[in-house]
Design goal:
The chain has 7 helices and 2 strands, in the order ββααααααα. With 176 residues, it is mainly alpha-helical.
Length: 176
């Protein structure tokens, strides 16, 4: 969070607010996320296909590296483009992570911690996403983000660690 300090300067009391380093970095990253616009469905599909081509090229380089330097350079370029496409998908869906993660604050974790777990869920969703199913990545990823965040809250906030399925069961019993 933030810390308010009282400083004495020339017999006048000055109140200064300083941010904790982790919270300050998080606020900067959230400000940067607000500037990045989500990608269109067409662009999203292109990025996902580019990422898949990069994975295929990486697999080929690992299993059966070509003898020809030109062929190897093409495959390495495809891998690099795939990684950049993956990174762009992660950044462009960052606002989705923040919006979902903000619902889970106040459960013992800070927004920064919950958002980190949400980003892990987003990465998993991007890696598992199949564009041929006819849904947007954001729709598919929201499930993985929620699952990752709720699991982190269940595991990290309890004094006595319980398995996640037991925590879920306790929640349903409390609702009844």
């Amino acid at each position: 969070m933030y810390r308010t300090e009282m400083k004495r300067k020339d017999k006048d009391t000055v109140m200064a607010t300083t941010w904790e380093p982790e919270e300050a970095l998080f606020r900067l990253s959230v400000a940067n996320l607000a500037k990045t616009a989500p990608v269109s469905p067409k662009e999203e599909r292109r990025l996902i296909l580019e990422m898949a081509a990069g994975k295929k090229a990486a697999k080929r380089l690992e299993e059966n590296p070509p003898e020809d330097d030109e062929e190897r350079a093409k495959l390495e370029t495809a891998v690099e483009r795939g990684l950049k496409a993956r990174e762009q998908l992660i950044v462009s869906n960052g606002r989705l992570v923040i919006s979902i993660a903000s619902r889970y604050t106040g459960h013992g974790l800070t927004l920064a911690e919950v958002s980190q777990e949400g980003v892990l869920g987003l990465i998993r969703a991007i890696d598992k996403f199949d564009p041929d199913r006819g849904v947007r990545l954001s729709t598919y990823a929201s499930y993985w983000i929620r699952q990752s965040v709720s699991r982190a809250v269940a595991v990290q906030t309890r004094t006595i660690r319980l398995p996640v399925h037991k925590v879920d069961r306790l929640g349903t019993v409390r609702k009844v």
